[in-house]
Design brief:
Blueprint (H helix, E strand, L loop, with lengths): L2 E10 L4 E3 H7 L4 H7 L4 E3 L8 H16 L8 E5 L10 H9 L5 E5 L5 H14 L6 E7 L19 E10 L4 E9 L7 E2 L11 H5 L6 E2 L1 H22 L9 E4 L4 H11 L10 H4 L6 H9 L8 E8 L3 E8 L6
Parallel strand pairs: 4-5, 4-6, 11-12
Antiparallel strand pairs: 1-7, 2-3, 6-7, 8-13, 9-10, 12-13
Helix pairs in contact: 3-4, 7-8
Bound molecules: oxa(dethia)-CoA (UT7).
């Protein structure tokens, strides 16, 4: 059976760090509140004028090309998961390809909010399993700071900028993207949304005056659904593949709130060494959070390691992927 295996991973975060102490100078918050309620200490911000998610994604892709030694002309498809496209059109994938100097690929964006990496990974894997393509790059690139109101204490501590990407290639071995359980429930719309800037409420002086081009989140409501839905989808994908938590080597939940991650860990009784977390340094980087975490811990992974990746985001869109790692760390 043909499967899609991850044969390389890379990430990029901007150099500029925004600490909790700095945020406390900007809004009525404190390091203590952010640390205890969310588990974030700092996040990275892309500040350079005229730069966007594609700059983060291009840096991650350049690093993937260097790490894997792949000839960029061999990359057949680039799928970019982002909620922060450089422009409404064209796709950020096409801009990333241009920035990296790739003219021999095709690319498009996926909008699945914080679940974007899992949705894009599933799409990329399906191309490979169908025998359509042999080299697919899945990128998650998020300049989250572009949708954050740094006067709103409810949201400004939460998010950070990052990009990460993986190379998918075919394998006949028992590894790669093994299965996924993905869901959407559109009732999430009013609870996590940027209300203006789309076709329903195009940009106008009124929308700007009302701060409608920033992320709005009903935190408590989203929190409850994030916990329940990441648990149920992880449970479903493990059950379907005859796995218990003892069979799983690593769990990576979307990094939105340490308390959400801890609730998932508690439900499944996940030992500390199996739970991969880096929210404290990067905050919620939306679609980039899971591949950013994979990239950070790549040095630990061995061929055959079993992963449950689970994410939840706007829509609501959520799910879990069962992944088997394809190579030993160098
Ligand atoms: O990535 C996509 C999915 N997103 C998520 O999964 C995020 C889910 N939600 C959450 O992580 C949490 O709900 C938040 C971190 C957003 C908020 O934490 P919370 O524990 O749910 O706080 P809350 O919104 O219920 O607010 C509690 C209190 C409020 O004060 P009152 O009304 O009780 O007096 C807020 O005004 O904390 C206040 N508060 C703050 N205080 C200091 C809210 N933000 C801050 C802040 N600093 N930054």
């Amino acid at each position: 059976m043909l499967r899609a295996k991850i044969t390389g991973i890379a990430s990029y975060v901007p150099d500029d760090v925004l600490t909790n102490e700095e945020l406390a100078q900007m809004v009525d918050t404190s390091d203590e509140w952010i640390t205890t309620r969310v588990g974030i200490k700092e996040r990275r911000i892309l500040r350079a004028e005229g730069t966007g998610s594609s700059d983060l994604g291009a840096k991650a892709l350049q690093s993937l090309i260097e790490k894997t030694g792949i000839d960029p002309r061999e990359i057949e498809v680039i799928i970019c998961a982002t909620s922060n496209p450089d422009f409404r059109f064209p796709s950020t994938a096409s801009i990333i390809a241009e920035k990296v100097g790739i003219k021999t690929t095709y690319g498009y964006d996926i909008q699945a909010a914080c679940a974007g990496f899992l949705v894009a990974l599933q799409a990329g894997a399906a191309y490979i399993q169908a025998g359509l393509y042999k080299k697919v790059v899945v990128i998650a690139a998020e300049k989250m700071s572009s949708m954050v109101n740094y006067k709103d204490r409810n949201t400004c501590p939460l998010f950070g900028d990052a990009a990460a990407c993986v190379l998918l290639e075919p394998t006949e071995e028992e590894c790669g993207v093994m299965d996924s359980v993905l869901h959407t429930d559109g009732m999430g719309l009013p609870h996590l949304v940027m209300t203006a800037g789309g076709s329903v409420r195009p940009a106008s002086h009124t929308t700007i005056d009302k701060n409608e081009h920033y992320v709005y989140q009903d935190g408590r409501f989203v929190f409850k659904h994030a916990v329940a839905d990441m648990i149920s989808s992880s449970d479903a994908v493990m059950h379907r593949n005859g796995l218990t938590i003892d069979d799983v080597d690593y769990v990576i939940p979307h990094q939105a709130n340490l308390r959400i991650i801890e609730a998932i860990a508690e439900r499944f009784n996940i030992p500390e060494e199996k739970l991969l977390v880096n929210i404290q340094h990067y905050g919620n980087t939306s679609a980039a959070s899971i591949p950013l975490c994979l990239a950070e811990y790549e040095h630990r992974f061995k061929k055959g390691d079993k992963f449950i990746l689970t994410a939840f985001g706007a829509g609501f869109t959520w799910g879990a992927v069962y992944l088997v790692w394809g190579y030993d760390a160098k």
